[in-house]
Specification:
By secondary structure, this protein is an all-alpha fold. It has nine helices and two strands; from the N terminus they run E-E-H-H-H-H-H-H-H-H-H. It has a two-stranded antiparallel ribbon with strand order 1-2. Strand 1 and strand 2 form a beta hairpin. Helix 5 packs antiparallel against helix 7. The longest helix has 26 residues.
Length: 201
């Protein structure tokens, strides 16, 4: 039985090749795009042999899906951290905006380029599995907002549903503009607009 392909991280711990490949893919896919990033680029950056990639992922499409899943989980971690600090349903809604702003504030290699999931989906053809992953991510964000709004507006289901559609549009539009402009300022502005809307409900 062969040993797993691992490397030693700076702190002395050994990291599996799969982790290094995902980290390299995350950097290159976000900075350069999915289509423009080849397998050779990813394996070189990860410091592993090409065969190691195919030992861990069945194809580039499989690696793209893993990247999209990992990016969603990364955002969920930011959201959960924000949610722990939220006081009540109103702040829980705004925690979604705060988690997006936190993601925008990361130190990206070529600066902030917007939502990595939507960027990837824009490159993938219709029917491609990765597009379904991105759609599921956005639907989950909308469900989270809807759940907080239902708690905020008990007995006002129609208003909660309308706001649950409005706020994700505001959020995703702000992310698109923030990506074009290269900073998260639009996301912060969208949060302020969302807070004003919630105050009027």
């Amino acid at each position: 039985m062969s040993m797993p392909d691992v490397s030693t991280a700076g702190d002395g711990r050994r990291r599996p090749a799969r982790q290094r490949l995902l980290e390299a893919a995350a950097r290159r896919f976000y900075a350069d795009g999915v289509a423009a990033t080849g397998i050779d680029t990813i394996t070189a950056e990860a410091g592993v042999a090409k065969m190691s990639l195919y030992n861990n992922f069945s194809s580039k499409a499989d690696l793209v899906r893993a990247y999209l899943d990992a990016r969603h989980e990364e955002w969920l971690g930011l959201y959960r951290a924000r949610l722990e600090q939220a006081d009540g349903s109103r702040e829980s809604v705004l925690a979604v905006f705060d988690a997006y702003a936190d993601h925008a504030a990361f130190a990206y290699e070529h600066g902030f380029r917007g939502c990595g999931l939507l960027n990837a989906a824009a490159e993938l053809p219709a029917g491609y599995e990765g597009r379904a992953v991105v759609r599921a991510d956005k639907e989950e964000v909308e469900r989270l907002i809807a759940g907080h709004l239902e708690q905020l507006l008990p007995g006002r289901a129609d208003e909660a549903r309308a706001a649950a559609e409005h706020l994700p549009f505001l959020l995703e539009g702000a992310m698109a503009r923030a990506g074009l402009e290269g900073d998260g300022g639009r996301v912060q502005h969208a949060r302020s607009m969302a807070a004003a809307l919630l105050n009027r409900l």
